[in-house]
Protein 1
Amino acid sequence: MPGKYVVSLTCATDDPDKATVAFVVANAAVASDKDTVVFLSTEGTRLSQKGVADSVHESGFAALTELMTNFAKAGGKIYVCSPCFKKRALDENNLVPGAVIVGGAKLVEFMSDGAPSISY
């Protein structure tokens, strides 16, 4: 079933349950042949950094690092909010695979033809 899907994530290690479930859903979408984007904003941008997700492993789920790696390997894209990233003084040279820093216009362009989305 072709189409697009967006998962918006505003948290990281501050809410590991939401961060984990967001990537579970994103993996389900990309496995369903959806052109899938996880949009990391506010605190979620911290997950764009290698090593940050390593300590997150919610009971009953795969480790967050594994979920993120599998998502990227399956062709999922991770858009990282540029102003949020800069506000937190994160390192552009330390991005996880699949992550790209973008402005809001890039997300709007991706969603412009009616892509469904879910937020965590």
Protein 2
Amino acid sequence: MTDVSKMESLKLENNKLRNYISLILAEIELTQRIHEIKENFVNPDDSKRVILPILDRISKIKSEKRPLEQELNLN
């Protein structure tokens, strides 16, 4: 492997790691928002209506993370 191809490979891996970290941070932030919503809403039905789209996004984030975890040998 040439130095140029090694560098390109490292750049690609670095970008994947950055993307993975961004997904983790988004998942943490959304999870915290869910906890805040549950604490601040009196009516469980109202909180459920607000929380469901957030849970859907968290699920999508987890799906996006899986292939990165496999590629980067993080699991």
